[in-house]
Amino acid sequence: MAVDPSRSIPSGIGKLRSGEERSIRLKKAGGKAADILYAVFRYALVVGISFIILYPILLKISVAFKDKIDLYDPTIFVVPKHYTLDNIRMAMQIMDYGPLLANTLLFVAVTTALTTAACALAGYGFARFSFPGSNLLFALVILTILVPTSTLMVPMYLHFRSFDLFGLYERMSGRPGVNLLNTYWPSIITAATAMGLKAGLFIYIFRQFFKGMPKEIEEAALIDGAGGIRTFTGIMLPNAISPLITVILFSFVWQYNDTLYTSLFMSESALMPLKVASLPAQANQLIPQLMGYASNSGIKSDPNHVAMIVDTGILLAIAPLILLYLAVQRYFVESIERSGIIG
Amino acid sequence: MKTVGMSFRTRRTLLGLAFISPWLIGFLLLFAAPLIQSLRFSFSKLSIAPGGYGLEPVGWANFKESLFVHASFNRVLVDSIAQMALNVPMILFFSLFTATLLNQKFRGRALARSVFFLPVILASSAVAAAESAGLINLMGDANAIEASSGAGVSYNILSMVRMLSDVGIPAAFTDYIVEAILRIYDIISSSGVQILIFLAALQSVPGSMYEVARIEGATAYESFWKITFPMVNPLILTNVIYTIIDSFAGSPVTKIIYETAFKTQNFGLSSAMAWLYTLVVGILLIVIGWVLSRRIHYN
Predict the structure, then answer these.
(1) A164 within some domain
(2) H/E segment holding residue B23
(3) Is B116 in contact with A277 (Cβ distance < 8 A)?
(4) A195 vs B contacts (CB less than 8 Å)
(5) Are both A260 and A317 inside the same structural domain?
(6) Does some domain include residue A237?
(7) Which residues of B touch A203 (CB under 8 A)?
C-alpha cells in the first residue's frame, strides 16, 4: 500500500538527527512501520465487519445444537455445555423439512433456469440487434426495474385468478379464464417471460456483457455459416460464464427468499419462505404436542424454547443457500469485474 | 430457407425481435396491461365477483381517502421516504469504503470477500419476519436470556454520544452517526450488491494510473480522491438508484398496500396507494438522477 513515508514520521524526530542518509533510512523504517500499522488496522476492520455479519449465524448454530437445559444456565455464552440434535429434529418435524426443501428447490431451480434463459435471450437481442424502436424497448426494460412491484400486485393477482391469453380461452371454451392461483404457474409464466423477480436487472447485466464482446467473433461465425441462434448458443453463451453465474446465483437466492410473489400467488403452497414466515406461530402451537402433551391439556410451550426452535428452523432454511454460496463463491467473487454488472 | 429472399437488414430485425420476444410478450401481458389496469382500478371501486370483477368509477375518491382518511398511510409514506433518504448516504458511503478495502491486496482477501457478500444471500424478508415475530411474541430470542443475565456483551452508546458532543460536533450529526452505528447490521446487510458494483468499477480502473500518481508523488489519500473517486463516479448514480429500488421490497408502504388489497379487500384504495407511492418514488428518482448526472464525469 502506498503510504507516504514523510507523513507517518513525526517531524520532530527528523530535526534532531542530522545527516541525510540517516534520515532517509529512518523514513524508510517509518514507512514500514506505517505500512504494518495500516495492515493491522485493515485486518481489525475486516475482521470486525466479518464478525458482525457472521455473529447471527454463529449464534443460530450454537442455539441449534444447544440442549434445553443450557437455556437457563447463565454461565454459557455461545458454546453450549450439552449438545443435542433434538432442536433440529423438532424444527424439521414442524417444518416438514425434507419434502418442503425438495419442493422449494425444484420450484426455485425451474424458475431460475427459465428466468436466466429468457433474460439471456433478451439481453443478447438488445445488445446486438438494432432495429427501429430497440432503444425505446430497452428504455421500457429500465422502466420495469423502476416501477415498484406493489403497483402491479392487484392486477397481477386478478390476472392469474382468471388467466386468459388475450381472451382466447374464453372464446374457445365459453368459460372465463383459468384460476392459476395456488399453482406454480404464475411464477413459471413470469419467469419464462423475463418478468420475474428483478428480471430487468438481469437483462441489463446480460446486455452490458454482450455489448462488451468483440463483434469480430460473430462476424466470423456468420461467414462460416452459423445462423443467429447457432451463434448465440455456440459462441456467445459459452463465453458468458461469469454473467451467467452472477444471474443464476442472484435469481436463485432472490427467488428462494421471496415472500411477496409467493404469498401473493401461492399462499397455500409448501414453499420455504412461507413456511419460515409462519414458523413462530406454528412452533408455538405444535411444540407441546411434539413433547407428548395432549393438544387440549392446556400446557403452553416455554417461549424461550419456542424461540430456540424458531432459530433452528431459520438456520435450516438458510443452510441450503449457504452451501450453494460456498460452492460457487469462488467463481462469483473472482469474476465480478467481467460479469458485465458495470458494462 | 424462407429468409433467403429478405435483405440482411430485415433478417437481422426479425432475428432481434425473435430474441427479445419472450420478454416482449411478458412486458405486454404482465407489465403494460397490469400497469394500465392498476391505473384504472385506482379511479374505481372494485368488487370481486366469481370468475371476474366489476368496476365502478369513483373519480379521485381513492386518492383522497388514502391521503386524508386512511389512518396511517400518509405517515408511513413520509416515514419510509425519510428512512430511505437517511439510508442511501450511509449505504453508499459504507459500500464505497468496503469496496476500496476489498480491492486492496492482503492475505485472506478472497475469504473476506465471500463473507462480505454473504448478506446478499441471507437478505430474506421471511427470515426477518420470523425473527421479529420471535422478538415480539416470545419475549426475545433464545439469546435474550443470556443478555439479561449479564453474560452477553452490551455496548454503551451513551458514553460515545457524550464524547462526541464534548468534542463539539453538532447534535444532528451525532444523531446520524449514532444511528448509523446502531443499525450497522442493517446497513451492512443491505449494501452487498452495492459493494459488488463498486468493486467491479474499482477493478476496471487501470493500474497504470496509480503508478503514475505514485511516481508524481501523490499520497494514497490524494490518489483516492483524484483517481479512484472520479473513476467510480458514474456508478454512484447506479448505486443510489439501486439502493432506492431495493428498499421497495421490505418497505412498510408495500406492506400497507398489500394488506389493504388482500386483507380488507379494498383493491381500488390499494391501487391508489400504490400509484401515489410510485409517483413519489419516481419524482425522487428523477430529481436525484438529474442532480447527480450533472456532476458525473463519464470517461
Answers:
(1) no
(2) helix B8-27
(3) no
(4) 23, 26-27, 30-31
(5) yes
(6) yes
(7) 23
Contacts of B143 in chain A (CB under 8 A): 59, 63
Residue (of A129, A247, A145) closest to A195 by Cα position: A145
Report how far residue B113's alpha carbon sits from residue B99's, in angstroms, rounded to the nearest whole number.
9
Q: What chain A residue is nearest to B191 in terms of C-alpha separation? A: A53
Q: Are B258 and A267 in contact (CB under 8 A)?
A: no
Interface of B with A in 20-49 (CB under 8 A): 20, 22-27, 29-31, 33-35, 37-38, 41, 46
CATH number of the domain residue A302 falls in: 1.10.3720.10
Q: What tens digit of pLDDT does each residue of A130-180 get?
A: 888 888 999 999 888 888 888 888 888 888 887 776 666 666 666 666 788
B270 vs chain A: nearest CA distance in angstroms? 8
- Average pLDDT across chain A, whole number: 80
Closest CA in chain A for residue B195? A336
Indicate the pTM of the whole model. 0.81
Encode pLDDT of A179-195 as tens digits: 888 888 888 888 888 88
Residues A122 and A266 in one domain: yes
Are residues A113 and A224 both part of a single domain?
A: yes
Identify from B46, B103, B124 which residue to disrupt to test chain A contact, counting A C-beta atoms within 10 A and taking the largest count: B124
Together in a domain, A196 and A314: yes
Please tell me the distance in Å from B114's CA to the nearest CA on chain A.
Answer: 6
For A56, the closest chain B residue by CA position comes to B185
Each domain of chain B, given as residue ranges in start order, spans: 66-123+190-299, 124-152, 155-184
In a domain, A269, yes or no: yes
- CA Rg value for chain B: 25
What value does the mean pLDDT take over residues A283-296? 72
The answer on pLDDT for A342 being more than 60 is: no
Under 8 Å CB pairs connecting chains A and B tally to 316
How high is the pLDDT of residue A102? 92
A294 and A241 assigned to the same domain: yes
- A78 within some domain: no
Nearest chain A residue (CA) to B202: A337
Each residue of A75-104: pLDDT tens digit? Answer: 777 777 888 888 888 888 888 888 999 999
| CA separation for the pair A73, A328 (Å, rounded) | 40
Cβ contacts of A288 within 8 Å, gap of 6 or more: A295, A297, A299, A300, A301
Domain span at residue A312 reads: 86-131+181-338
Place of cell 458495470: A342
User: Is B110 an interface residue toward A (CB < 8 Å)?
Assistant: yes
Contact B116 A49 (CB under 8 A): yes
Please name which of A332, A289, A94, A175 lies closest in space to residue B199, comparing C-alpha atoms: A332
pLDDT tens for chain B, 299 residues long, are: 455 567 878 888 888 888 989 999 989 888 998 899 888 888 888 777 665 677 778 888 888 888 888 888 888 888 888 888 888 888 998 899 888 888 888 888 888 888 888 887 877 666 776 666 555 444 444 444 444 443 334 456 677 677 777 777 777 777 777 777 777 777 887 888 888 888 888 887 888 888 898 898 888 888 888 888 888 887 888 888 888 888 776 678 888 888 888 888 888 888 898 899 889 888 988 898 888 877 766 54
What are the cell numbers at B189? 446487510
The answer to whether the CB of A194 falls within 8 A of the CB of B26 is yes
User: What CATH fold (topology level) applies to the domain B66-123+190-299?
Assistant: MetI-like fold (1.10.3720)
Which member of A56, A148, A156 has the closest CB to residue B281? A148
Name chain B contacts of A77, Cβ cutoff 8 Å. Answer: 146, 151-152
Q: Is B17 on the interface with A (CB under 8 A)?
A: yes
The C-alpha cell at A249 is: 446465483
Q: Which helix (H) or strand (E) holds B47?
A: strand B44-49
- Do B94 and B188 touch, CB atoms closer than 8 A? yes
Quick check: B127 and A257 CB within 8 A?
Answer: yes
